[in-house]
Structure formats: C-alpha cells, structure tokens
Design brief:
single chain; three-stranded antiparallel β-sheet; alpha+beta; 2 domains; binds heme C; elongated
C-alpha cells in the first residue's frame, strides 16, 4: 500500500523529478471521466463580492486545494471519497442514502478521474453554498445526494469543527491527540481551517516557549533543529533528523495499512515531561553527548 501511495504521489505531482529512478505508470487516458450522470458542475470555487479573499487565498495555498491522487493502476474512485468527495461515486448500496432514489441506478465500477476533472476539497464541501455565496457555518456535503438527488438537501449538520475534519482524517488517517494537555482541543484551535497551517509558537499558544522566564532544559539554541514534538511526544515514536533541513521530528511507525514503515509525521500525542535519553542515549548513531 505504501508503494501505491508513493506511485500515486508521483502521478499526482511531478513525474519528471523521479523519472530517473522509477518506472512511470502512464496516467489514465484523458477521456476517462465518469460516464455516470452528474449534475452540471457549478463553478468549483465561487468568488463572490464580499467574500473574504484571505480565506480563498489561504485555502488555495493548502493541500486541500491540490488533492489529486490515483493508485498504481490509475484508479481513484476509492481515494476520491476523501480526496475529492464531489468526484466520488458510490459502488455499494451501503453508501447510498435511503432518500436518494436516483443514486440507485449508478452502482458500477467507475472509470478513473483525470486531474483536469478532479474537484479537490472546495468551499462547498464544508459550507452550505447557495448561488455561489458561501455561508460561514460549517456543514458536510453528502456527495451522493449532491450529485444525484436534486430534490433533497445534500448538507448534513456538523457538531464540531473536529467532526468535520474527521469526515476524512479518520481510520488510518486519524489524528490521536492523546490524554495530555491537548486531549480536548479541536483541530481548529491550532490549525487554520483554510490554510490548514498550525504552529506550536502561534501567538495563541506557546509564543514564548523558547524565551521562557525561567530557563528550561532543551529550550535553547543547541536544540534549534529539534521540533517541539520530537521532545514532547508521548506516543514513544522514533525520532530522527528528517527532510532537507534535517529537522528532528517524530516518525509515524506504520504506513496506512499498518505495515511497519516509519515515516516523518508530527505526533499529536504530547506530554510535558521529556526524556533526554530518547536521543542522548549511549552509542546513539548521531554522536550526541550522553553525560
Ligand atoms: C479515509 C480517507 C482517505 C482515503 C480513502 C484516502 N486518503 Fe489519502 N489521505 C487522506 C488524508 C486525510 C491525508 C492527509 C493527512 C495525513 O497524511 O494524515 C491523505 C494523504 C495522502 C497522500 C499524501 C502522502 C501521505 O501519505 O501522507 C497520498 C499520496 C494519498 N493520500 C494517496 C491516497 C490514495 C492513492 C488513495 C486511494 C487508493 C487514498 N489516499 C485514499 C485521506 C484519505
Ligand atoms: C475542509 C473544510 C473547509 C473548507 C474546504 C472551507 N472551509 Fe471555511 N471554514 C471551515 C471551518 C471549520 C470554519 C470555522 C473556523 C473556526 O471556527 O475557527 C470555517 C470558517 C469560514 C468562514 C468564517 C470565518 C472566517 O475565517 O472568515 C468563512 C467566511 C469561510 N469559512 C469561507 C470559506 C470559503 C470561501 C472557502 C473556499 C475558498 C472555505 N471556507 C473552505 C471549514 C472549511
Ligand atoms: C473532504 C475531506 C477532508 C476534510 C473535511 C478535511 N481534510 Fe484535511 N486533508 C484531506 C486530504 C485528502 C489531505 C491530503 C491532500 C494531499 O496531500 O493530497 C488533507 C491534508 C490536510 C493537512 C496537510 C497534511 C500534510 O501532510 O501537510 C492538514 C494539516 C489538514 N488536512 C487538516 C485538516 C483540518 C484541520 C480539517 C478540518 C478543518 C480538515 N483537514 C478537513 C482531506 C480532508
Ligand atoms: C530538546 C527537548 C525540547 C524541545 C525541542 C522542546 N522542549 Fe519544551 N520542554 C522540554 C523540557 C525538558 C521541559 C520541562 C519539562 C518538565 O518540567 O517536566 C519542557 C517544558 C515545556 C513546557 C512546559 C513549560 C512550563 O512552564 O510548564 C511547554 C509548554 C513546552 N515545553 C513547549 C515546547 C514548545 C512549544 C517547543 C517548540 C517550540 C518545545 N517545548 C521544544 C524539552 C523540550
Ligand atoms: C495542539 C495543537 C494541534 C491540534 C489540536 C491539532 N493539530 Fe494537527 N498539527 C499541529 C502542528 C503544530 C502541526 C505541524 C505543522 C507543521 O509542522 O507545519 C500539525 C500537523 C498536522 C498534520 C500533518 C502532519 C505531518 O507531519 O505531515 C495533519 C494531517 C494534522 N495536523 C491534522 C490534524 C487534525 C485532523 C486535527 C484534529 C483531530 C489536528 N491536527 C489537531 C497542531 C495541532
Ligand atoms: C529529540 C532529540 C533530543 C532530545 C530529546 C534532547 N536532545 Fe539534546 N541535542 C539534540 C540535538 C540534535 C543536539 C544538537 C547536536 C549538534 O548540534 O551537534 C543536542 C544538543 C544538546 C547539547 C549540546 C551538547 C551536544 O551534545 O552537542 C546538550 C547539553 C543537550 N543537547 C542536552 C539535552 C538535555 C538536557 C535534554 C533533555 C532535557 C536533551 N538534550 C534532549 C537532540 C535531542
């Protein structure tokens, strides 16, 4: 599965960058859009007078605006369920809302969707949108109803921002906030809902962590390349220098199928106390001092 995800990303972004070391799966033919009847698509991301351009720009820069993926065989209907719900076609009766009579005629394996027809995760996925005006309140668009049943309200109410995020950040993608200080936080306490950016040293959070009133071991220049969570992780994830800048970060132990395959990923399960020996252990491969 990790290979499928990897190849998917190769297809999605830049085939050139890796062409030297990976055989490239040809993308599906350009005509391979779904044959199922789909309601005429309204403009994907409506801009309306009075609509905050900040919000739109923030969203545009986020990964939610660039979610195209396909598996190694070029198929992506299952992926679209989270990556582009408006492209997703139900293939099982279980996925069809009882109210949706029209949907029931469309259960057949869908053809792959090409990038040009991919709908990303637009405003209307998370907000009721009428005549291109996006309302502020959040709601969840049921894609099956939206695509097939023009009479029913396709929006389901949402109890919290986290519940909205977890429509997709679930199952193998679920974020574990642990039992520590962040246990009861909602995703948008830290993440901007549109840019999806988050920072531990955000003004609302630990802005002065690295300039504490009383000195804190580890909150110093020697650890400038150590991400906060590499020290404060409570999930006992492995840590090591990651990425081009060699920033120390936690590694998620498995891939999305549960197969061991450590991958750089910010732990969300955090605690105050820190074990220096997590990195400064005898015989550590990075030659960090151990006294
Ligand atoms: C249950 C919802 C869900 C499904 C189904 C899903 N994804 Fe994702 N995917 C996500 C989320 C959420 C993220 C980003 C956040 C994260 O990595 O935790 C993501 C991230 C990715 C990434 C970025 C790299 C990574 O692993 O973090 C790739 C590539 C990807 N998915 C490919 C696929 C492919 C290919 C499929 C279909 C075979 C698929 N996904 C199906 C929810 C899903
Ligand atoms: C992934 C879901 C998601 C998408 C996509 C999304 N929003 Fe939001 N939006 C939210 C959430 C959640 C909030 C509430 C934020 C909070 O409570 O901090 C919100 C709040 C807002 C608000 C009110 C607060 C503010 O920041 O001004 C506006 C206006 C808004 N969104 C417009 C948009 C527009 C326009 C788009 C498309 C460019 C969009 N949203 C896309 C989830 C989303
Ligand atoms: C409709 C499904 C969906 C919803 C709802 C959703 N996300 Fe996502 N999110 C994704 C997918 C899919 C990706 C990965 C896109 C890619 O890389 O192809 C992603 C990516 C992200 C990333 C970037 C991950 C990275 O590797 O950098 C963050 C952060 C994020 N989402 C946070 C949120 C938050 C916070 C909310 C709620 C306000 C939310 N998402 C709601 C599907 C969703
Ligand atoms: C090199 C390891 C290390 C790094 C990196 C690190 N911390 Fe800490 N942090 C510590 C230690 C050790 C303590 C003291 C724990 C204790 O009192 O049990 C601490 C304490 C804290 C506290 C509690 C302070 C208090 O007054 O009770 C907060 C909040 C915190 N860190 C946030 C952060 C943030 C935010 C970052 C990233 C900007 C960060 N830490 C990076 C080691 C680290
Ligand atoms: C206490 C603050 C906080 C909360 C609560 C929080 N996050 Fe995060 N999240 C962060 C920070 C900080 C990062 C790292 C951002 C970076 O390094 O760019 C992050 C990173 C992520 C990533 C990318 C991880 C990676 O390394 O690729 C995803 C996906 C994500 N968060 C989703 C969520 C979702 C979904 C929720 C709600 C269930 C959530 N987060 C709640 C602070 C938070
Ligand atoms: C997540 C890994 C990690 C943890 C946990 C950690 N450190 Fe470090 N530490 C480092 C790195 C990386 C350096 C920088 C080494 C360099 O610049 O060559 C460093 C440097 C140091 C140095 C400077 C001397 C040296 O070895 O270069 C001291 C002293 C130090 N750490 C003490 C601590 C103490 C005390 C704790 C616990 C509060 C701690 N560290 C926790 C990774 C860590």
């Amino acid at each position: 599965m990790s290979i499928r995800l990897f190849i998917a990303r190769v297809l999605a972004s830049s085939a050139l960058a890796v062409s030297a070391c990976q055989p490239i799966t040809p993308p599906p033919p350009p005509t391979a859009t779904s044959a199922a009847p789909v309601a005429p698509a309204p403009p994907a991301q409506p801009t309306t007078a009075g609509q905050s351009t900040d919000v739109k720009q923030a969203w545009q820069a986020s990964q939610h605006a660039n979610t195209f993926v396909a598996d190694a065989d070029g198929n992506n209907n299952d992926c679209a369920r989270c990556h582009a719900p408006m492209n997703w076609l139900p293939t099982s009766m279980n996925d069809i809302p009882a109210t949706c009579q029209a949907c029931k005629f469309n259960i057949s394996p869908p053809k792959p969707v090409v990038q040009a027809d991919w709908k990303n995760i637009g405003c209307k996925q998370c907000h009721k949108t009428e005549k291109d005006v996006v309302t502020k309140e959040v709601a969840w668009l049921n894609a099956a109803i939206a695509q097939f049943d023009t009479n029913a309200d396709p929006y389901a109410p949402i109890t919290s921002n986290t519940a909205l995020c977890e429509k997709c950040h679930r199952d193998a993608f679920k974020i574990d906030l642990g039992k520590g200080a962040h246990a009861n936080k909602v995703c948008t306490d830290c993440h901007d809902a549109h840019s999806t950016q988050a920072s531990c040293t955000d003004a609302r959070c630990h802005a002065n962590a690295l300039k504490p009133d009383k000195p804190i071991a580890g909150h110093d220049a020697a650890h400038a390349n150590v991400n906060c969570v590499a020290c404060h992780d409570a999930a006992s994830w492995q840590v090591e220098p990651t990425g081009e800048k060699r920033i120390w970060l936690t590694l998620r132990p498995t891939d999305r199928t549960g197969t061991p395959n450590p991958t750089a990923f910010a732990s969300h399960n955090l605690q105050k106390q820190v074990d220096c020996a997590r990195c400064h252990f005898a015989g550590n491969p990075w030659n960090l001092k151990t006294q």
